[in-house]
Amino acid sequence: MSFGFLGIQFGFALQGGFMSRIFQTLGADKDAIPLLWIAAPLTGLIVQPIVGYLSDRTWHVKFGRRRPYFLIGAVLSTIALFFAPYSSALWMAAGALWVLDASINISMEPFRALVADKLPDSQRSYGFVVQTLIIGVGTWIASNLPWFMTQIGIPNTAEPGVIPDSVKFAFAIGAVVLFASILYTILTTDEYPPEDLEEFRRKNEESKGFFNGFKEIFQNIASMPTVMKQLGVVQFFSWFAFFTMWSFATPAITEHIFGATDTSSAAYNDAADSVGNYLGTYGLVSMFFALILAFITSKVKINRKLVHMLSLFAGGSGFILIYFIQEPWMLHICFALVGISWASILSMPYAMLSSSVNPKQMGVYMGIFNMFIVIPQIIAALGGINFMYKLLFGEEVVFTMVLAGTSLILAGLSNLLITNRQATHDG
Fold this sequence. Notes:
Elements: H1 4-25, H2 33-36, H3 39-56, H4 67-83, H5 90-118, H6 121-151, H7 165-188, H8 197-207, H9 210-222, H10 226-256, H11 266-299, H12 304-324, H13 331-345, H14 348-354, H15 362-369, H16 371-392, H17 399-414, H18 421-424
């Protein structure tokens, strides 16, 4: 039931690893890159709660509750992922990112809700960790695709303002994997029907309508559990850090480590491929860390809060170390530490949340929870990154990675706010 996340992560890894490269190739200034990303989190802020609300109220005899949204998101994501690297202007690339992120969001949160639907509380840490394991595989493979395309002879450079063929081929492969893996989950996973189908339909009939839907969503926001609010603080700092990485890892590392700034040069494009390789490392390590967590959570009960806090500290240290290293190979160590954080971010908060909300509202609350992911990204895109790293550290673009590390350490400390034992420990 989690295999579709392989494709979702292919989409996210290619988006996160190479959209900034596409923006730079099309002439974007480094400081303008976060603003070009803003459509993605803005879309998530709107789409996720609505999709979660609708999926809670959906039941189809053949496709179930969550799978219709998997299919819609898969079709739209595949189209957007294929055409994104063929953008010839910045506005086209930003529009492609907007469509891609919106489409992936349609599929993603129903996948989270599906795990909570089908697993008892005692198995949810294990279930979300298994998802993270699959995500790690997808991140590692997808992040290395442009490099691999270059190794088999596909051109890695192009005329100024043109995306190299290596990137185009990588996105095309990602599109195929995304659709095929989500389709596999749709065809092989059953869903449980509502306990009382007639009552389910009656309540849906009573509450149907555009304004009723938004009213219920806002009521759920107003009455969200305390644990969800506390996790929101953790999520804010966590996702501010990773949005900073996705926006600035390519310009920061190509400039600070490799000294390459000409986006049409072989030096820059080789360095950008290397950045993808380093980002692949965090995916690979997240896979192994998730594998370890999967083994542990299948055997013993864990303290979710403690695991998450220590994992975030590790990732924060990895980001900060990027400023101090001199040899490119050492970036693998930095991103290995980041991978530990990534594995935990994709599993522990959802396990804690799913133990604290009404199962009948799992979809809408998973969607609302996404607000704590997209709001920090919106703040970052509107100038938060540029303002904070220059104010706190200095003008060099590599200080964005130091800012990301500081944010992850604050996220780790924020776990101390969570005191509900039902949320922090396996049931």
